[in-house]
Amino acid sequence: MKLLGISGTVTGSKTKIVIQRVLDEVKAQNLDVDVELLDLSEYDVQFCDGRDPALYTGDTKKVIDIVSSADFFIIGTPIFNGSLSGALKNLFDLVPVKAFRNKVMGFVATGGTYQHYLVIENQLKPIAGYYRAYVVPDYVYAHDSHFNDQKQISDPDLMQRISNLAHQAVYMHNALKTKNKNQALSFLYESS
């Protein structure tokens, strides 16, 4: 089972730091989970122009393939001007809807005001709803004050929220996988 953490920005480092901490926490709690970090700043991703996702090449194709191969997600964005990053929005536009359908999504956001956590509620969760994805109840919002001068997480409450998100994402993925498997088996037995 593969958990993909997505750092949905091409600038800054705090979002990536928090996403990596969530992935580290998942790995510490669950040795059977493969974790991977997709840092959009490391790829030259084209702007979505409406073509079939299979027709993209280069880094854009790599990123689409990485996302499509994941079983569940921790998705993060810095908040710019009261909204998710353009890089993350572009990724959502590029990736086929079926890549997210019936998969678990957990969210992370970073920002400079305490009100920016609302972007998770008002923008990211509705996007997950469009994809028919399952959303982890808890999320992580990290304010600039949660980091020290070396850009290390220094807030113990934030660390607890990271641990909660890691636990809930894996728990939900496993519960839904088991439920779906049992429903499929039940259907097979009823059909025969």
TrEMBL record:
It comes from the Bacteria. Residues 1-143 form the NADPH-dependent FMN reductase-like domain. InterPro entries: Flavoprotein-like_sf, FMN_Rdtase-like_dom, NAD(P)H-dep_FMN_reductase. Its EC number is 1.-.-.-. This is NADPH-dependent FMN reductase. Keywords: Flavoprotein, FMN, Oxidoreductase. Pfam families: FMN_red. It is an enzyme of class 1 (oxidoreductase). One of its GO terms (molecular function) is oxidoreductase activity.
